[in-house]
Amino acid sequence: MTVKILFKFVEKGINLSPDAYNKILTLNDPLNFTSSLIEQIENNENSNSDLVSLDESIIEEFIKKFGLDTSKRNNDESEIPNLNGETPIPTENNSISMEKKPHPTEIKPIPVEDTPITKENNSISKKIKRNILKPDMEYNFEVIQDTSKKSYTSGEINNLITYFKNRYEKISSILSKRAELKVHQKISDITDDTEDINIIGMIKSIRNTKNNHKIIEIEDGTGELSFLVHNENVELFNIAEKLVNDEVIGLLGDNRGNLIIASRIIQPGVQRVAEKEMDFAAVFTSDIHIGSLTFQEEAFIKFIKWLNGDFGSDEQREIANDVKYLLIAGDIVDGIGVYPNQDKELAIKDIEIQYEEAARYLGDLRSDIKIIISPGNHDASRLAEPQPAIPDKYAKSLYELNNVEFISNPGIVSLDGINTLMYHGRGFDDMAMTVKGMSHEKNDLIMEEMLNKRHLAPIYGERTPLASELEDYLVIDNVPDVFHTGHVHINRYRKYNGVHMINSGTFQTQTEFQKIYNIVPTCGEVPVLHKGVYKQLKFI
Known about the structure:
Blueprint: H1 2-11, E1 14-16, H2 18-25, H3 30-43, E2 52-54, H4 56-65, E3 97-98, E4 141-146, H5 157-175, E5 196-208, E6 214-219, E7 224-229, H6 234-241, E8 248-255, E9 260-266, E10 281-285, H7 297-307, H8 314-321, E11 323-329, H9 351-362, E12 370-374, H10 396-399, E13 404-406, E14 411-415, E15 418-423, H11 427-434, H12 443-453, E16 482-485, E17 492-496, E18 499-503, H13 512-516, E19 525-530, E20 533-538
Parallel strand pairs: 1-2, 10-11, 11-12, 12-13, 15-16, 16-18
Antiparallel strand pairs: 3-20, 4-14, 5-6, 5-8, 6-7, 8-9, 10-19, 14-15, 17-18, 19-20
Helix pairs in contact: 1-3, 2-4
């Protein structure tokens, strides 16, 4: 950790005398002090020379400025000051970029020491946290869906049959409310004499003919049937291009004897959601990846300071003052062993220490912000979706914070009546690779298609691991007011039929994996719904 402190000063072109360095090491939390000190220096418009030199007397001045008392270090290890709550020196640059259409930005990662942090050498502060105390604010908060303790699958084939049957019944119920499908047939009831076909089925396969038409084979539990979508019917063919295996649809067609020609394809779709009054602000983030060498610590510290009202312009601080909820949709830490050779890209190589570090940051938040955390594929939860909430076995420090709520992935919460669907987003991978015209960069198009399909990961057996539960919890039974996702590290926002679709980007710079696929993340950009209006703040 001491090497990490030196690297921080070197990275910013700051020369530190040996006496000054030793003075910093006498503090309870030297790393936290270092980050705050560097930020103060950067925000001071009189410190724009190429090289800043700090001696012991200057360090002592800052220690007094921050109100630190080094004499308490050996007597009371628990009483550590909160540097992240200090107000930066006001300058023209002491503000956060806020815009509606951000541009991807790559930030050089902060060098860290090669020695991994372990339980034995961990120097994370054990300071009293702001949100240890219970907040006084009243919340109209409700967990609507949390599947954490609803896993009953044994992995047997009967579970898989029950899983698909439940999916079919759920989405069929939605489709049967459509006027065209209120009265529909079972496949087993269709004969050669049936002229008009009107059924609800699950797609078994989709294939192209040699003449580039499409054959859609569907089943409904009573039988199987094939429809031909003619390529000259351009509108219908374009709809068919977005269909995937295992989704449930309605199909209308004309029986031509040995061939049924499709005339309509009906997805469950989304009826327009009425606008709800919102007199507060909610902040959305994900993919923080604490513990990674590419975690943007300085940007995240600024983000925490902004939420506390200690950073940003007057307008931005007013927004922060209205923040009532912070939602984190997975990958709060980088995890351990998520992919081959991950240890080479980790600054913290112990999962519990990663969560302790997360608790250190979030513990600095003011206590009247309720934090809702769901897991992602890097978190210490099972990989198969739905994922239970992060267990306290690994995230004990986070569970000690009184304003944190843990839910499953996916999960649904009500924020003062604003129903919010949180989904980390593994289902994006299959959709981006399968559906023509879709990509991780345009994840809002995928989110729209998920809403139309009423399912978060309809394709079974591909890249997204799905648990064959007795109930399919990835069906979108009710349309939310807010649909919040992450995973792809690319921030997108769009309003679709009244639904706020938000992908919250990341606090991690471009990874080696992303370089291979030329994925450019939008780093340090945080979406906010402020009294119903979407805003985006940049912390780099």
